[in-house]
Design goal:
The complex is a heterotrimer.
Chain A (H helix, E strand, L loop, with lengths): L3 E14 L8 E14 L3 E5 L6 H8 L7 E6 L2 E2 L5 H8 L2 E4 L13 H12 L4 H14 L16 H13 L5 E5 L7 H18 L2 E6 L2 H7 L2 E6 L2 E7 H6 L4 H9 L49 E4 L2 E3 L6
Parallel strand pairs in A: 3-8, 3-9, 6-7, 7-8
Antiparallel strand pairs in A: 1-2, 1-4, 4-5, 9-10, 10-12, 11-12
Helix pairs in contact in A: 3-4, 3-5, 4-5, 5-6
Chain B lengths: L9 H18 L3 H23 L3 H4 L27 H37 L1 H15 L3 H12 L3 H27 L3 H9 L3 H37 L11 H8 L7 H29 L1 H4 L2
Chain C lengths: L2 E14 L2 E14 L3 E6 L5 H8 L8 E10 L2 E2 L5 H7 L4 E4 L3 H4 L6 H13 L3 H14 L5 H5 L8 H13 L5 E5 L7 H18 L2 E6 L2 H7 L2 E6 L2 E7 H6 L4 H8 L38 H5 L5 E4 L2 E3 L4
Parallel strand pairs in C: 3-8, 3-9, 6-7, 7-8
Antiparallel strand pairs in C: 1-2, 1-4, 4-5, 9-10, 10-12, 11-12
Helix pairs in contact in C: 4-5, 7-8
The chains are: A alpha/beta, B mainly alpha, C alpha/beta.
Chain lengths: ~325, ~300, ~325
């Protein structure tokens, strides 16, 4: 079928917590063993709440952070063993659209320079050509060509996000990471951005990794979903299958607590008790066991492996084995 | 086209001008600040046009006029004359030029050293940060006046050396100021975006971080212009800065000490000039503080 | 049903470098005693501005109230002095803000902050205030109150912080609560809990609520009536049933259709509108620039709220 564009094996990222003179150094286990493969042209939705590690995972994939261990292969190249000029060339193929439309664009730069930055860094064209390329990109994302000489603060959140998209696409990347692309934007602009993203994906043959906590957005865009909790995937597989019938108790809780999906009154919302535990000392056994409504004895003792539970997906839960 | 920011085209200048005009508009909303800004302009104008407007050009540097010494203010001599018969008004006017030049040079030099060091330290972190900040700390622990005195003692007293001394004492403040800002800018999403794009570190520091962290430095620098004038005047007062017959305000105040009881005009007018100039720079700096903060700027 | 809050002809403008912009233009808005009224709109529509105007917390230059009346318990708030407003804020009208991290003072423990408010607003002694603080923790279902009260805001989770804000809002027996997107920055599983808590507290204390949100589905879970705000104007008004089940205004329809329910259904952009104009048109309906059903009259005349059945009103010519 399609070739594999990204291959992630046993990726681990721990952050050190500085100990004092008397306390031992500890580790925040942000990403603790993630495996997946992404095919070209697909959309992977990464779902989870704050503290689950999805932002860290994405930062490591973009090599904005060094991993503690594990491997990432982009089109066959070992990402972590690539440095210098080679790495710079590789970066052309993996780009990212950040969450915050205000701070992801340098407020003191003209749009021409913001979108033009990747072009400047890698291609160094003459000025007039640069301007034309930026104008073309603006048109591609549905913004007026005159925007090239304006400042970010002259645009609304939705428009700034389009600028960020234009910047990400400037070098015709193959893989684009979308980090909560619409969570800071109002509803109408959201719809426009999502529609734009899907159009561009088809037009430019892109592959997306979509990080979002908004399930409707993920539902709309993703082919596959990975649900993360405390640094690990708890459920991973075909998006439609998971949405129709979530298997893992955490996935079920996520879906049932969202207001938009079928709730009639506020009491219909499912409440997951407790808080996300600390990533420094995750619970023993299954990390979710402290909050799981269907917890069994074995859950606190043994960690369930992420295994295939039916045709379309993997899940890590003792209930399903 | 090696630079990150392409050479400016006409269309690119327009929006930047607009931002400048906005700063102006906002500055002038406060009555007091507006008066201060106008006064600064006047001072600059006086400094530039000095040779054209002084009534007694020959008195400024080397002329003497012994018959007319220590005359009180009159129509021919607006501020009176000094002990060598020189017209004080002309000398005060020329002093504007000297003080402003010294202030700009000292602050400019301090910025030139301090800002890049601070930006690199904050943006890079790690060992580089430690090393630069320790050096900065060493320089910070010298009291500025003392440092100035030391340098003047070594290199000899002169206005240029005073200016150098001030610059050397001043730059660490800017380094520290900008380093703190740079550290918080480092994690901003547009900086991460630049790294994801593959922008070289050097261009991130000077293209991204510096423009966004320079605002408090500009505020501080405008206020420092006043402070430098005061320090230069103090140094001249102590005999370590400008030497006679330079028409520097501090020097004039110092010389006037001996004639204080009989010729009040001799100390008052140069002193007033110092006071007004320093005050006005402080006010402008204060006004800029509000205006340049992106949070309060929108209106 | 008596009206607790009645707003009429409120016009709020902002003076900027480029001129004067109108941010709020409310013909009429009223909230009855004991009712929960939801205000839905995009960011920039003027919802938070309205909340601040009611509490007279707007930064007066550059904002200014051109005209209008805000009647609270029969008295016009706009005419009150700062001193009088201070007596009202917190005690009669309280507010839950969007971002708990910036609402709570980071250098004081939560206990200190709560007791201070209680001492100031209700004149309690320190010991009494401390006791009441613990009661408040129980009210918002925070376990282990002593421990929570001794912590600083940054040591608590987002959900815990928001519950503290809610406790503060309910602490002095206010009869009117303004909740400005109280669950905006919370994770979805935490949001469910906080929403249920708010709903329960509203039921128990019978407080009148103005609930501000940007998501119609979320607001309809808590409120009885809802108003849709677009660019400072109310475009649709009615009970939850009327508006959510039978939306009439083109803008409301677009809001509801914004994210398709079916996977991969192509978002029909002909149903959604084009990008918003930056400047308001001189005359005519403010939504006309984006409206797909617009006709000539829409560009000429501003539509007033007209009755279309039951308690359902819309501001549209069609």
């Amino acid at each position: 079928m399609n070739e594999t564009i990204l291959s992630v094996k046993d990726l681990v990222k721990y952050f050190p917590v500085r100990g004092g003179v008397f306390t031992k150094a500890q580790w925040v286990k942000a990403v603790d063993g993630v495996n997946f493969e992404l095919e070209k042209g697909r959309v992977l939705g990464l779902v989870g709440e704050s503290g689950c590690g999805k932002t860290t995972l994405v930062n490591v994939l973009l090599k904005l952070e060094e991993p503690t261990s594990g491997k990432v292969f982009f089109e066959g190249t070992d990402l972590f063993n690539t440095h210098g000029q080679q790495l710079r060339r590789l970066r052309k193929n993996i780009q990212i659209v950040f969450q915050d439309p205000f701070w992801s664009l340098n407020p003191r730069w003209l749009i021409r320079n913001i979108i033009g930055e990747p072009i400047q860094v890698h291609l160094k064209p003459p000025l007039s050509q640069l301007v034309k390329m930026v104008e073309d990109l603006l048109e591609l994302v549905g913004l007026p060509r005159e925007a090239v000489y304006q400042y970010p603060h002259e645009f609304s959140g939705g428009q700034r996000q389009r600028i960020a998209i234009a910047r990400a696409l400037a070098l015709r990347p193959k893989l684009v990471v979308l980090d909560e692309p619409t969570s800071s934007i109002d509803a109408l602009s959201q719809a426009q951005i999502l529609s734009l993203l899907m159009d561009l994906k088809n037009k430019m043959d892109l592959t997306y990794i979509l990080v979002s906590h908004d399930l409707r957005v993920v539902h709309y865009m993703a082919d596959e979903i990975a649900v993360m909790y405390l640094g690990k995937f708890v459920e991973y597989g075909d998006a439609e299958a998971i949405f129709q019938k979530p298997a893992h108790p955490y996935t079920q809780a996520l879906f049932k607590s969202a207001p938009s999906i079928g709730a009639e009154s506020v009491n219909d919302l499912f409440i997951l008790p407790g808080n996300v535990p600390s990533a420094i000392n995750p619970p023993s056994g299954c990390r979710f066991h402290t909050r799981c409504p269907q917890v069994m004895e074995i859950c606190s003792q043994k960690e369930p492996p992420l295994v295939k539970i039916d045709r379309d997906r993997l899940a890590a839960c003792h209930l399903l084995n | 086209m090696r630079k990150l920011l392409p050479v400016e085209t006409f269309e690119a200048i327009k929006p930047r001008l607009k931002e400048f005009k906005l700063t102006f508009y906002l500055l002038n909303r406060n009555r007091l600040t507006m008066i201060a800004v106008i006064t600064v302009f006047l001072l600059v104008l006086i400094a530039i046009l000095a040779p054209l407007i002084v009534p007694y050009k020959e008195h400024v540097i080397s002329g003497t006029n012994p018959q007319e010494k220590l005359l009180p203010p009159s129509q021919e001599h607006l501020f009176g004359t000094d002990e060598l018969g020189r017209d004080i008004f002309s000398r005060v006017i020329y002093g504007t030029r000297i003080s402003l030049e010294t202030a700009l040079a000292a602050v400019g030099l301090a910025l030139l050293i301090g800002v890049p060091l601070g930006a690199i330290a904050g943006a890079t972190g790690g060992v580089v940060d430690e090393v630069i900040m320790r050096i900065t700390d060493i320089f910070l622990s010298f009291p500025p006046l003392l440092l100035a005195i030391l340098i003047a003692a070594f290199l000899g007293p002169s206005l240029t050396n005073a200016m150098l001394a001030i610059a050397v004492a001043w730059w660490p403040w800017y380094t520290r100021l900008i380093r703190g800002q740079a550290v918080s800018m480092r994690e901003r999403q547009f900086v991460r975006a630049a790294r994801a794009i593959g922008t070289p570190h050097f261009k991130i520091v000077f293209g991204h971080i510096v423009p966004n962290t320079i605002a408090p430095v500009i505020v501080q620098a405008s206020m420092d212009l006043g402070g430098v004038i005061l320090t230069a005047a103090s140094l001249s007062f102590l005999g370590l800065g400008a030497q006679p017959p330079t028409p520097e305000w501090g020097l004039m105040v110092s010389t006037s000490r001996n004639y204080f009881l009989n010729a009040w005009w001799y100390s008052i007018f140069p002193g007033l000039a110092i006071f007004i100039t320093v005050l006005v720079f402080n006010l402008v700096g204060d006004g800029l503080r509000e205006v340049l903060d992106p949070r309060t700027r929108k209106y | 049903m008596t009206e607790l809050l009645k707003i009429e002809n409120l016009k709020v403008n902002f003076r900027t470098f480029e001129g004067v912009t109108n941010v709020l233009n409310l013909e009429s808005l009223s909230v009855a005693k004991g009712e929960s009224f939801g205000l839905v709109g995009e960011s920039g529509a003027g919802k938070t501005t309205l909340a601040y105007t009611i509490l007279k917390l707007l930064p007066i230059p550059p904002a200014f109230v051109e005209s209008g009346v805000i009647n609270f318990e029969g008295e016009n708030l706009l005419k009150k002095s700062e001193g009088e407003m201070q007596k009202i804020r917190g005690k009669k009208v309280s507010m839950i803000f969007q971002d708990p991290m910036s609402t709570l003072n980071p250098v004081f423990t939560t206990g200190q902050q709560i007791t201070r408010v209680l001492q100031h607003n209700q004149g309690l002694h320190k010991a009494q205030a401390k006791k009441k603080a613990v009661e408040l923790m129980n009210l918002v279902k925070l376990p282990d109150p002593e421990n929570i009260l001794s912590k600083y805001p940054h040591e608590l989770s987002g959900g815990q912080r928001q519950r503290i804000i809610i406790a503060l809002a309910f602490s002095c027996g206010a009869q009117f609560l303004i909740a400005d997107e109280p669950t905006r920055n919370l994770d979805v599983t935490i949001q469910a809990g906080v929403l249920q808590l708010i709903a329960e507290l509203i039921r128990e204390t019978n407080v009148t609520v103005l609930f501000i949100g940007n998501n119609l589905e979320l607001v309809s879970l808590i409120c009885d009536r809802v108003g849709i705000l677009h660019r400072g104007q109310l475009v649709e008004l009615g009970s939850i049933k009327e508006v959510a089940k039978h939306p009439a205004h083109p803008y409301t329809l677009t809001l509801l259709r914004a994210i398709p329910k079916e996977k991969r259904e192509k978002i029909d952009l002909t149903q959604i509108a084009l990008k918003a104009e930056e400047k308001l048109a001189e005359k005519g309906c403010r939504y006309a620039g984006r409206c797909l059903k617009k006709e000539k009259i829409c560009l000429e005349e501003e539509p007033a709220l007209k009755h279309i059945g039951g308690t359902h009103y819309i501001a549209c010519h069609l």
